[in-house]
Amino acid sequence: MSDTVVSLLTPVGVGAIATIELWGPKAWGCARQLFRPAGKPLPDSPELHRFWFGTLGEGAGDEVILAVTGVDRLEIHCHGGRRVVQWIIDQFRASEVCLPYPLAGEGKDQLIPASLLQHAPTLRTASILLDQLHGAFDNAVRRVLELFRNHTPYPVLLTEFSDLVRFAPLGRHLVEPWKVVVAGPPNVGKSSLVNALAGYQRAVVSEIAGTTRDVVSVQLAFDGWPVELTDTAGLRAAEGLEAEGIDLARREVAEADLVLWVMDGNASRMVWPSADIPIEKLATLINKADAMVGSRPDLQAGCLLVSATTGQGLPQLVKWITTQFVPEPPPPGVAVPYTPELASIVTAAYLGLVQGNGNQSARAEAIRLLREALGQPG
Ligand SMILES: Nc1nc2c(ncn2[C@@H]2O[C@H](COP(=O)(O)OP(=O)(O)OP(=O)(O)O)[C@@H](O)[C@H]2O)c(=O)[nH]1
Ligand SMILES: [Mg+2]
Predict the structure, then answer these.
(1) C-alpha to C-alpha distance for 134 and 136, rounded to whole angstroms
(2) Are β-strands 282-287 and 304-305 bridged in parallel, bridged antiparallel, or unpaired?
(3) Ligand 1 neighbourhood includes 214 CB (under 6 angstroms)
(4) Which residues of the chain fall below pLDDT 70?
(5) Angle of CA points 210, 301, 288, to nearest 5°
(6) Sheet holding 73-79: strands in order across?
(7) What is residue 110's predicted lDDT score, i.e. its pLDDT?
(8) Cβ neighbours of residue 93 under 8 Å, at least 6 residues apart?
(9) How far is the CA of 204 from the centre of ligand 2 (A)?
(10) What confidence tens digit (pLDDT) does each residue in 268-284 have?
């Protein structure tokens, strides 16, 4: 991209300090125009990892720190108040060399992770997004394009390319949480389980079957990964309000990344999930482990045994869910396709190449898609 872009890295109006990023070929020139250092004047060209204290803007200006964080990349650390941030961004816009920071829904600009960073639900996902903001993903895409250009042997190309695609499933969930739906027959302890996992009383629990009529969701972090846990109405034949709840529950199950099917270990007969829930997103739990008496011949291998009341088996359940979603967390600085769109683009490019066994047209299509991932279509 040849333009210079100004973007806000921190959430608007929340923090005491805000970070504004300026990147592009004219970033340094732009900063020199607007920033007045407290000490010696700024050098002619930026020096990596140096920072200066001074004021920014017309008139008295506002006190800020200017830091050089990368090639053509600067950060301005300023007061976090909404007006100050807006005013500084406006100063850069008015300098006519900068584009405004991307606004949601503005086509290609959405691919810039600066705007995504504000929406990162956990510190762990924020740190992955920050790595991508610093170029981890773009650089990895450029490396693969370079291998194509240099006619690198196919196996070497494939290895490097597969590294780029490796974290695509994770990249889909840096902003959007994984959806985990707790489903099962009435009165098995679904709401109790959601409450126990959430660590506080959220869903209404009672000994009367059919208590939950609605869909209740809580946003949680399992080991730093964002998870939306949804409680649903017990699935059984019902009428009226409860039937509507059951209908909603079925829809939630269809959209879930993972369905936790709960059964009552204390019941005379366990109700197993119906065949319409895809097996790859289904986990079966037997709840009320604390109240189980004797051995259960219908307790199948592969079922997780838990108790919402005592907490038995819950740490193991959380660990199991986490490894389903993130079998291997990315090491720091590694490329992650950081939006669902980018994840789809690089995966399609890689699979197309493999299916075409590296032939000419598959290569051309992969190159086209990788350029698209860099925001350089055509
Ligand atoms: N002993 C024991 N009782 C539990 C456990 N979990 C839930 N219960 C009890 O089981 C009953 C039903 O719990 P809920 O959480 O309301 O069950 P549900 O599956 O959400 O029920 P519906 O919303 O009606 O479908 C309540 O009396 C709970 O206290 C558990 O682990 N052990
Ligand atoms: Mg319930």
Answers:
(1) 6
(2) parallel
(3) no
(4) 1-3, 11-15, 58-60, 96-115, 200-204, 210, 212-214, 236-246, 296-298, 376-378
(5) 35
(6) 35-37, 51-56, 62-70, 73-79, 17-23, 4-8, 98-99
(7) 39
(8) 6, 99, 100
(9) 6
(10) 888 888 887 888 899 99
- Residue-wise pLDDT for 158-194, tens only, equals 999 999 999 999 999 998 999 999 999 999 999 999 9
Q: What CATH number belongs to 178-325? A: 3.40.50.300
Q: Which atom of ligand 1 is nearest to the CA of 187?
A: 21
> Could you tell me how many residues make up the chain?
378
What span, in angstroms and rounded, lies between the C-alpha atoms of 276 and 307?
A: 26
Pocket residue to mutate for ligand 1, from 181, 182, 191, 192, most atoms within 8 A of Cβ: 192
SS3 call for 134: coil
Of the candidates 58, 7, 17, the one whose C-alpha atom is nearest the C-alpha of residue 36 is 58
Say whether 231 sits in a helix, a strand or coil: strand
Amino acid at site 29: G
Q: How many angstroms separate the alpha carbon of residue 223 from the centre of ligand 2?
A: 26
Could you identify the residue written with the tokens 């895409």? 141
Taking the C-alpha atoms of residue 65 and residue 79, their distance in angstroms, rounded to an integer, is: 10
Q: Is 288 in the pocket of ligand 1 (CB under 6 A)?
A: yes
CA distance 132 to 136: 5
At residue 203's C-alpha, the angle toward residues 305 and 218, to 5°, is 85
Q: Are 120 and 174 in contact (CB under 8 A)?
A: yes
* Domain 4-101 indexed as CATH 3.30.1360.120: yes
Query: Among candidates 293, 165, 267, 179, which has minimal Cα distance to 225?
Result: 179
Phi, psi of 222 (to 5 degrees): -105, 110
> Residue 190 Cα, ligand 1 centroid: separation in angstroms?
6
Cα(192) to centroid of ligand 2, in Å? 7
C-beta separation of 92 from 26 below 8 A: no
CA pair distance 277, 256, nearest whole angstrom? 10
Ligand nearest to the CA of 205: 1
Residue recorded with tokens 């010696």: 40
The residue ranges of every structural domain in the chain are 4-101, 178-325
Query: 25, 4 in Cβ contact below 8 A?
Result: yes
Per DSSP, the three-state class of 350 is: helix
Give kind and range of the element (H or E) at residue 106.
none
